[in-house]
Sequence to fold (391 residues):
Amino acid sequence: MNHDAPLTPARLGWRQSLYSGAAGVALLHAVRARAGQEDREALRPWAAAMVEGPIQAAPEACGLYEGAPAVAYVLSFTHTNTATRALTTLDTHLAYLTRHRLKRAHARIDRGALPTLGEYDLISGLTGLGTYHLHRGHRTELRDTLAYLVRLTEPITIDAQPLPGWWTSDSPDLRPSPRWPGGHGNFGLAHGIAGPLALLATALRHGHAVPGQTLAIIRICGWLDRWRTGTGSRAWWPDLITRAEHRRGEPQRRGPRRPSWCYGTPGIARAQQLAGLALGDRDRQRQAEQALAGCLADDQQLAQLTDAFLCHGWAGLIRTVSRAAADAMDDELATYLPRLHARLNEHLDHSGLPEGVGLMDGTAGIHLVRLTDVVNTTLTAAWDRCTLLTG
Fold:
């Protein structure tokens, strides 16, 4: 079966979506062009589709994966004169957007209220905007975002119960729900506290530090230690916990969920590996790498992967392991990569390419993971900065 069939704009999702639409496919073609794998003309229809019509720029309606930040992220990989001019304009707006959202977030903290996931997460929130500013080298906006994340980690008391500052008032669907009384604590890299941990750690590794940043990293790691089940290669974390589980002090679920980038042990372990590297904490780094290796050796966990996507499938697991292996203390993680690629190929042979075209839940992400495996240079590898897997 041809796993590299050409994509066309005919099956577009939302045009300015890095997650599922034209922006994600434009990123694929921009990286392919920089790698010398195709002519730049292949990018043109996708870039045109991405910017057709007004760019979504309302502060509360766009994040790294949607609207103006997503478009700007893609343009940062294109390096044409037109893109450079557009990027200058977008960066000015994104600085304003970040300031606006930070002001609202600090006001919420001052009120003693709980955050929504969309306030701080990677996909829609300030962690995603901070990731963009780290990628672009915007020191002021990154500094201010890191300072906010430090405040986010400070404990909060709600109804006489102490909670971590990132405990959210809404459901995992990013909105209030009677099914989630008291909200929940989210562990994932995409929507939970592993995202801020990865950004705080990565920024620190690159020399970007604000007061309290190290303490914030330690706070998050301490919470992850508190909710870890098992040790060594048998360690795993819940994807989220309810208020009732928090009161009891243990999760109801008795085993790990699927080993995905977005919510599973791989993404959470990678964030902790980055924290260990940033702090020079070799014990934490080792524990994270052992947990990830144990996940890869567990057929019951791997059997829960049912798609090839970057977000929650084989491609995401491969990219997470590849990044973690490059920083690991030994070669154990790297030894799993050939088998993981074989499993991805088996899945594609059996099920074919998915219908979606986006970066996270479509073919663009799968193609990028496969491209980086073949042409692994600084130019091609940088595309995944939006996933916070890059150290």
Summary: Residues 81-111 form the longest helix (31 residues).
